[in-house]
């Protein structure tokens, strides 16, 4: 959507992972949720700071964005060839270098955080959750996601390229898509879009 992510040297974590899952293209959202859960778990373990997830890909601390996840895939109609999960996190960024509405782990914790320790923990959590997902199915990830999310239960506005949808975020489905109840009562499945919490 034409946005930029600032990545000053020696301050944050900016990493891409390549996965080759046996999934249908429609199941891709679950990998974004898996990565978000893993990042929150790693932040808690390394810094003792509680991070939350705004569906589908924003990592939030105290209503301020600390990171984002972008998942892209190469696929045929019925087969995923590979998935690239990109993760950007503000770790030791100073307040003056952050845009309004953003924060960093250093700002939230009050002291610098080891980027190496956090990156190692992120990889360990992603691997553990990915193996768990492969062995036990998506339910183990969606259950964890619900514990970390700040979107379900909120009124949301979802912007697409040419239109928008507004309603109550009621849950996610087994593939990680957001379920939004419109004012008409109809529940619409959202697999991608820019979500704003209305209130």
Structure in words:
The relative contact order is 0.18. 28% of the residues lie in helices and 32% in strands. The protein contains four helices and ten strands. It has 199 residues and is an alpha+beta fold. The protein is globular, with a radius of gyration of 17 Å. Strands 1-5-4-3-2 form a five-stranded antiparallel β-sheet, covered by helices on one side. The protein has a five-stranded antiparallel β-sheet with strand order 9-8-7-6-10, with no helix packed on it. The two termini are 23 Å apart. It folds into two domains: 13-148, BirA Bifunctional Protein, domain 2, CATH 3.30.930.10; 155-197, SH3 type barrels (Roll).
Please describe the structure with a list of short key phrases separated by commas or semicolons.
globular; SH3 type barrels; 4 helices; five-stranded antiparallel beta sheet; single chain; alpha+beta; BirA Bifunctional Protein, domain 2; 199 residues
